[in-house]
């Protein structure tokens, strides 16, 4: 029996990496958790990054901010904990709507060894029970940008209340409209009760226990998976809900856990499945037969490779991912046909050499590598856009395929309009 790519030797690379800051996760998390606030303990650079990434209008009052570490803090001339306590007190007095406060570590706060875990405990005593204070690291020193969400959700698990109830926990921050679609499908299938982590409001915070089963909606939640497992919950292993195949298999795995026949799932998803297949087919005319190379960036690479090769007809040359978590990615690897190189970690110069040698039709990479590759005549897709765009489940499947078709169409149009320029680059 074929196991797809599960047994393929993995090329493990440890060298210079091109990564985006883990603070980026705050941009989608602060929109999801409506009564939470994310206070980054960092530098002015951290503040500028968040403002630029979020595109927050000057008169808006977002649910994130930065407690600036000045030169005197970094030099040890001031008591950073006293200043942090003062800033938190000022913030909570001005914003009584905040029910959950995250102290988010950054590169500067970690360099000076500021103990935000202890600070969170201290501030929880001071401001509880009205405000729960937690902490996690968004530092980009050793992480890739989606690990910010993973660290945030993992920090919430020890504070969750306990329950003996048999229940499903959906784990991962989805746009509200996508989460509502998932909950509606599960309700039609007959799966109940269903809770979400993160919840939109603190009052809806889920409880967990030995009868809790959880399904991940994002493939980058390795630490959260481990925290939930330690707390006694059990993971439902399945492909991730990208595209028709992934969404169907994900729902069937959950249904099986609750004793519901797969035929019931097929009945419920019949109409959205037809819509999704039609939408995917429109983009697949551009994607079919094209060769794709995944640089390690978002940790979405493996399920996206499965979707693009099996449902859109693309050929994967290399599937690179920052971390390959077999418990999470195994079902995906079982479905990907043997052939592509699997790589974990990055040595960016060596990987760029492989990109240039193979000349793929499309390279999925971070923003820092996209423009140089485009200048060499290679079409690219920004990995970060795949996190900021709704791409899960049936109704978004066509949009997901289109995200990869558009750069190929743009590249083809540019080649028609400026053939000499692109030929020179190639």
What does this structure look like?
- Pathway: Porphyrin-containing compound metabolism; bacteriochlorophyll biosynthesis (light-independent).
- Protochlorophyllide reductase is composed of three subunits; BchL, BchN and BchB. Forms a heterotetramer of two BchB and two BchN subunits.
- The chain has 426 residues and is α/β, with parallel strands linked by helices.
- The chain has 3 domains: 10-16 and 269-425, Rossmann fold; 22-143, 3-Layer(aba) Sandwich (Rossmann fold), CATH 3.40.50; 167-263, 3-Layer(aba) Sandwich (Rossmann fold), CATH 3.40.50.1980.
- It has 18 helices and 14 strands.
- The chain has helices at 26-32, 44-54, 71-74, 80-94, 107-111, 116-127, 147-156, 176-189, 222-230, 243-257, 262-287, 301-311, 326-335, 348-358, 367-375, 385-388, 397-417, 419-425; strands at 10-14, 36-42, 64-68, 100-105, 132-137, 167-171, 194-197, 212-216, 234-235, 291-294, 315-321, 341-346, 362-365, 380-382.
- Strands 1-12-11-10-13-14 form a 6-stranded parallel sheet, sandwiched between helices. It has a 4-stranded parallel sheet with strand order 3-2-4-5, with helices on both faces. A 4-stranded parallel sheet has the order 7-6-8-9, with helices on both faces.
- Helix 7 packs parallel to helix 9 (222-230), helix 10 (243-257) packs antiparallel against helix 11 and helix 12 packs parallel to helix 13.
- The protein is globular, with a radius of gyration of 22 Å.
